[in-house]
Amino acid sequence: MREQRGIFQHIDWWVAILFLVLVILGWINIYAAVYDENHSSILDMDARYGKQMIWILASLLLAMVILLIDGKFFSQFAYLFYGICILLLIAVIFSGREISGSKSWFQVGGIALQPAEFAKIGAALAVAKYLGNLDVDIGKTRTLLTLAGILLLPMILVILQHDAGSAIVFVSLIFVFYRAGMSDKLMLLLVAIPLLAVLALGMNKYILLVVMFVSGTVYFLSTRRKIKTLLTIIAIFIASVVYVFSVDYGVNKFLEPHQRTRINVLFGKDIDLKGAGYNVNQSLIAIGSGGFWGKGFLQGTQTKYNFVPEQSTDFIFCTVGEEWGFQGSFLVIALFVTLFFRIIFLAERQRSKFSRLYGYGVASILFLHFAINIGMTLGLVPVIGIPLPFFSYGGSSLWAFTILLFIFIRQDSYRYELL
Question: Across-strand partners of 276?
Answer without folding.
Answer: none
